[in-house]
Design brief:
The structure is a single chain. It contains 17 helices and 14 strands. By secondary structure, the protein is α/β, with parallel strands linked by helices. It folds into 3 domains: about 20-290, Aldolase class I (TIM Barrel, Alpha-Beta Barrel); about 340-400; about 405-525, Double Stranded RNA Binding Domain (2-Layer Sandwich), CATH 3.30.160.270. The strands form 3 sheets. The chain has an 8-stranded parallel β-barrel with strand order 1-2-3-4-5-6-7-8, surrounded by 8 helices. A 3-stranded antiparallel β-sheet has the order 9-10-11. Strand 6 (about 180), helix 7 and strand 7 (about 215) form a beta-alpha-beta unit. Helix 1 runs antiparallel to helix 11 (about 280-290), helix 6 crosses helix 7 (about 190-205) and helix 14 (about 365-380) crosses helix 15 (about 385-400). It is globular and about 75 Å long.
């Protein structure tokens, strides 16, 4: 095996203990949420926003999981300007080598390897002795140093581990070359007191602990991920692992926006700082929502629709007199702009470009012209175009994949008498095809027409509609989720002032991604499985 040159990617402290490293795993752990799978183009969009935000480390994927994951990590590594690019790897040489090759193009690359330390995992999952696990940790971390000098090692299920044994594992990992040690609450079991106790014990009982940065990764099974992350900070953790909107397996992960804004708003208490440009939080939140189809509840902290809404008379009275009476942070601090720049059909290119800049978009000339034309078309339908309308419009444009199937025309008839009818014309690979169908309502009729024109075996798993803004002329934002026979989930998202048009466009978006999956990703996975089988036979 050729030895790759080391690339230093240590994330330095600014002023020692006052610097918190933000490690975002939206593209790895977040994507493990059922239904949250992203394609390469979508991952690149999310990575770009994270990089613009100033996130320190982007865990771009699990390179060994598939050829698609490997290529995604590699593409992000080539493209990202500032953040460290990280790939997850099991404590196996093949995994580590693949991760090292994936992050090799990055300006700063990291390998993140892990091994369980709890007796319950060692006994029932790995069936290994404690001594054997220490050997695995030593060998894996040592091997990872051949590819980079930035190695993170995680003690999976740390919060349910015997603390003395956890200390042995941490000491072993650091001796072998780990520069970051992560003590995760893998199953979301711990309380803030548990977290403080664990970090304090490790700090006081691992002799070489000063040679590594302590990190915390919290799962939200008991709704304590953010509280536990903040407890870890007070106990000495200087890296927090999180995701946009808190997406992730089961109940999700620590929400980046919650931790970042808690540290910023209560800087007087935590006495630390982090590099995130908080004005881009809403931009990142909405992008992840649109790509994954995971809408967040209105009362979600920081990014929910009601986070800065005040209905109580007492609250409104206070707000009118002084916003600080009931707002502990400003809407502008997270990217919610109360702009006096009203957009409408008379707004020109300069005003639109200024609005895009204000909302955190930086797009090329061709993309700008397309977005401006779509804005003018929307402005003809709506008297006022709100910020959220523009975000939805641009996101729709940016996250489009292959467009072999396009909407030409749609006509729907429905009501209380008889079945709904749909007349649909699509362009499929440049050829116009039409269908007339009936259904139990306009959505069913329209979706049947799509399947008649472009037959497929995927099942409809989710149909979700919500209004982008208020008012009777609000755009409908629609998510359609399809599931293949192999249980691969594919999302489509679209917005339009006509709910039926938005629904049809969302289904078509999912269908185009489905076609891309069947022609590109599926064959790659089949090839990878064949290679694995051949390799096993050789062994």
């Amino acid at each position: 095996m050729p030895k790759n040159p080391k690339k230093s990617s240590k994330t330095s402290h600014s002023g020692g203990i006052d610097r918190i490293i933000i490690f975002d795993t939206t593209l790895r752990d977040g994507e493990q949420s059922p239904g949250a799978t992203m394609n390469l183009e979508e991952k690149l969009l999310v990575a770009d926003v994270l990089d613009q935000m100033g996130v320190d480390v982007i865990e771009a994927g699990f390179a060994m999981a598939s050829d698609g994951d490997f290529e995604a990590v590699k593409a992000i590594a080539k493209r990202t300007k500032s953040a460290v690019i990280c790939s997850l790897a099991r404590c196996k040489k093949d995994d580590i080598e693949r991760a090292g090759n994936a992050v090799k193009p990055a300006k700063r690359g990291r390998i993140h390897t892990f091994m369980s330390t709890s007796d319950i995992h060692l006994k029932h999952q790995f069936r290994m002795s404690r001594e054997a696990v220490l050997g695995v940790i030593k060998d894996a971390v040592t091997y990872a140093t051949k590819f980079t000098d930035d190695i993170e090692w995680s003690a999976m299920d740390a919060t349910r581990s015997d603390l003395d044994y956890l200390c042995q594992a941490v000491e072993t990992a650091i001796k072998a070359g780990a520069t970051t040690v992560n003590l995760p609450d893998t199953v979301g079991y711990a309380t803030p007191d548990d977290i403080k106790r664990m970090f304090t014990y490790v700090k006081n009982n691992v002799p070489n602990i000063d040679k590594a940065i302590l990190s915390f990764h919290g799962q939200n099974d008991l709704g304590l991920a953010t509280a536990n992350s903040l407890a870890a900070v007070t106990a000495g953790a200087r890296q927090i692992e999180c995701t946009i909107n808190g997406i992730g397996e089961r109940a999700g992960n620590t929400a980046l926006e919650e931790v970042v804004m808690a540290l910023k708003t209560r800087a007087d208490y935590f006495n630390v700082h982090n590099p995130v440009k908080t004005e881009l939080i809403m931009r990142a939140s909405k992008l992840v929502q649109n790509i994954t189809g995971f809408a967040i509840q209105p009362n979600k902290a920081i990014v929910g629709a009601n986070a800065f809404a005040h209905e109580s008379g007492i609250h409104q009275d206070g707000m009118l007199k002084d916003a600080s009476t009931y707002e502990i942070m400003t809407p502008e601090s997270v990217g919610l702009h109360r702009s006096s720049l009203v957009m409408g059909k008379h707004s020109g290119r300069h005003a639109f470009k200024q609005k895009l800049k204000e909302l955190g978009f930086n797009i090329g000339d061709n993309a700008f012209e397309d977005a401006f034309n779509r804005f003018k078309a929307l402005a003809d339908k709506k008297k006022k175009v709100y910020d959220d309308d523009i975000i939805a419009l641009v996101d729709d444009q940016m996250i489009k994949g292959d467009e072999s199937v396009k909407l030409v025309s749609l006509s729907v008839a429905c009501g209380s008498k008889g079945k709904a009818k749909a007349e649909l014309t699509l362009s499929v690979d440049g050829k116009k095809l039409s269908a007339k169908t009936e259904g139990d309502g306009p959505v069913d009729a329209s979706f049947k027409a799509i399947r008649a024109i472009a037959p497929h075996k995927a099942r409809l798993k989710l149909y979700q509609v919500h209004a982008v803004t208020g008012g009777i002329d609000a755009q409908a934002d629609v998510t359609v989720r399809l599931e293949t026979e192999e249980e691969v989930v594919i999302n489509g998202n679209a917005s339009d002032t006509d709910t039926m048009v938005a629904s049809t466009l969302a289904y078509i978006a999912a269908l185009n991604k489905l076609k891309s999956y069947e022609t590109k990703v599926k064959p790659e996975r089949a090839t990878l499985k064949s290679e694995v089988k051949v390799a096993k036979k050789r062994k």
